[in-house]
Amino acid sequence: MIVGSIAGIGAGLAAIGAGIGIGSIGGKAMEGMARQPEAASKIQTAMLIAAAFVEAVALFAVVVAFLGTGQVN
Amino acid sequence: MDLSHIFNSKKFFSKSFCAVLFSLLSFTAFSQEHTSADTAHAETSVAHAEGEEKEEDISQMILHHIADSHEWHFFGDVSVPLPVILYTENGLVTFLSNKFGHNDHGTEVINADGVNLVNYHGKYYYPSAVKGADGTYITHDSKGDILNTKPLDISITKNVVSLLISVIVLLVVFIGIANAYKKREGKAPKGLQSILEPIILFVRDDIAKPQLGYRYKGFMPYLLTVFFFVWLNNLMGLIPFFPGGANLTGNIAVTMMLALCTFVLTTINGNKNYWGHVFTPHVPWWLYPLMIPVEIIGLFTKPIALMIRLFANITAGHILILSLISLIFIIKSVLVAGVAIPFVLFISVIELVVGFIQAFIFTILSALFIGMAVEEHAEH
Questions:
Q1: How many whole angstroms from its chain centre is CA B302?
Q2: Element (H, E) at B119
Q3: Which residues are listed under the site Reversibly protonated during proton transport (chain A) (predicted)?
């Protein structure tokens, strides 16, 4: 038997979006680094910042899911 | 951040061996702690049926582990009680958390300095007048929310102790190396200095300078403090036994204070351009009713995002590790451990990286926000 809440599904959907986002950030950063290896460290920093912004959206969904299931007061 | 030389070094393999060994040691401690918590839960829920209730227990166990508590649990029945400080109707009430036993089911009213209290799931409430049908002095409404009021809790909890430990560690280490720089001015670094100098230079050259330009010097103390504080506490949260295990950066109040510091710094240091950008944005005047509220909300969402990001990242990591270990107890087969434990090891190593990256992200975003506030001229 599967027990859960609709909030969990919402968090899962947000994770799909963030996955696509972080995937494309990582892919493009790799491309950039392959083209210009000397700029690798700069690209890496910018990549991490952008990834953090995307990730934050998914984590907002996780927090909302927790609130939805009433497990974090 | 070119780290490839680490992998080329001969010492790498001996280091990684040590890391694996330490991780395995910590897992044994982890699972021991788990089983004891599990049996404790099992004892309390004798009346409950097996099956679904078991899963409920495990999610309770996970939430218990990431939450704050009034005692520091070591292993088995060994735990150190911490002082409880409550601001009640009768003024301050203080006692050690084990003074009235370990009953946290809300079934027993305790009398501390003339104030009646009831401990329900680790929190102190004022008891209801009569015992409820479930044997507790806690009243729930139809949604299951607790109706009892509670005193202001300013106890020295596990998180506070952990905070004090990390503050002491940071003070000792950094005052030590600051004195070493003073004493050995112009000479090569030695000992702790050699370990921390590259990291301090990393914060200066890769975080502060690109975001803040020539004004970086004034903000270096804050950026270094926040970087090392978050990093140390992320790492301490990953240690399952005594000095660590408190999940401090996974506590929203702590991350809120850190984000508030960044917010105060941005607000105080904001120059004419920054506030001009907020109150007279470069848009046609008839868009002002729309843009000004958006810009004002934007001032607050930045630190709020900073707060939620750190909190949710660290909490999610802890929940993930505990859930994977709990798989063994949910499926009830030792064989699962063969899959779960290597996977937990893998996730733990990732968490070590996440601990660093989150400290880096928090610091660089703080620097970015401060940089936006102190920028001389807008680029349009």
A1: 19
A2: strand B115-120
A3: 55
Q: Can you give the CATH number for the domain in which A30 is found?
A: 1.20.20.10
CA distance A46 to A27: 13
Q: Which residues on neighbouring strands pair with residue B140, listed in sequence order?
A: B146
Q: Both tokens of residue B253?
A: 């109040």
- ipTM entry: 0.75
- Tell me the DSSP string of B54-81: HHHHHHHHHHHHHS--SEEEEETTEEEE
CA–CA gap between residue B269 and residue B47 (Å, rounded): 60
Among the listed residues B247, B345, B314, B250, the one whose alpha carbon sits nearest the alpha carbon of residue B31: B345
Q: Is A40 on the interface with B (CB under 8 A)?
A: yes
- The verdict on a CB contact (< 8 Å) between B313 and A59 is yes
Closest CA to B276 of B161, B378, B355, B198: B378
Closest CA to B106 of B150, B48, B55: B150
Q: In what order do the strands lie in the sheet with B91-96?
A: B91-96, B83-88, B152-153
- A62 contacts B206? CB cut-off 8 A: no
- Please state the domain count of chain A: 1
Phi, psi of B249 (to 5 degrees): -75, -5
Cβ-Cβ contacts under 8 Å, A72 against chain B:
63
Domain ranges of chain B: 83-155, 159-374
Please answer yes or no on whether A56 and B309 come within 8 Å at the CB atom: yes
Range of the domain at A37: 7-68
Task: Assess if residue A33 is contained within a domain.
Answer: yes
Query: pLDDT tens digit string along B201-238?
Result: 999 998 899 888 888 999 999 999 999 999 999 999 89
**Are B63 and A71 in contact, with CB atoms under 8 Å apart?**
yes
The angle at the Cα of A33, spanning A27 to A37, to the nearest 5 degrees, equals: 165
In a domain? residue A41: yes
A73 occurs within a structural domain: no
Q: Are B301 and B259 in contact (CB under 8 A)?
A: no
Q: A52 to chain B: which residues are within 8 Å by CB?
A: 309, 361, 365
Distance CA B196, CA B227 (A): 12
The CA-CA-CA angle for residues B347, B225, B5, to 5°, reads 50
Closest chain B C-alpha to A32 CA, distance in angstroms: 16
Q: Which residues on A lie below 8 Å from B309 (Cβ)?
A: 52, 55-56, 59
pLDDT tens for residues B77-93? 778 888 888 888 877 88
